[in-house]
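[audit] Reproducing an earlier prediction to check determinism. Same input, same settings, fresh worker. If the tokens differ from the archived copy the diff job will pick it up downstream; this log only records the rerun itself.
[audit] input (248 residues):
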Amino acid sequence: MKTAIITGAARGIGLATTDLLLNAGWQVAMVDRDGAALAEAITARENVHGIDCDVSDPAAVEGMITETLRHFGRIDGLVNNAGVADFGPIEETDFARWKRIMETNLDGVFLCVQAATPALKETKGAIVNVGSISGLRASTLRVAYGTSKAAVIHLSLQQAVELGEYGIRVNTVCPGPVRTKLAMAVHSQDIIDAYHDAIPLNRYGTESEIAEVIAFLLSDKASYVTGQTIASDGGFEATGVGLPSLRH
């Protein structure tokens, strides 16, 4: 049975991806630093193993890989989904805030891939790094977040080029606006309307829609796909000016 590690698995896109892979016959090491949410998620699922881990901690990441191999015996897929969404103006983004975002969003991806590589060599496995539309196009209040996700996109290319030698595939999925509980809590109606105006499909995505792309890239159906960045964003990245005028 194939085994995947999913970071940030206790909720949102990570949890949706977990459920898709379980339905496809995988077993999943669910990794999160929110122990309470992780425990609740594990209780309702079979063929999972919960690991409390902060992906920005090198020792914890090494331990997470060791524990996955101890419990499941193999690693076929790695989904680097854990991330910090912390937005603020440039002038209010002090170095501590910058470092906190980079440590999880960028350092975590580097550390997890490096630690998992020996096991992935054995299975010729696949890696999916979760970026963001904010890494492909600039926006206000995202100087640290957007930069971290842009760096993840390039890091994925570096990883794809080097690890392809071992049959390991590496791709990036960049979600656009997703209808999560967190987003709906912080997005005012004005923000929602503005997003709808800029998205050709005229709606937010869902967690399961992003998960479907991740699951595809992990699967054998994507066996010749590596080094790619896929924006699952309803066409948001493609949009220039004029779409609202056209609709009105």
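[audit] rerun output stored. Observation attached for the diff report: Residues 54 and 172 are 21 Å apart (CA to CA).
[audit] end
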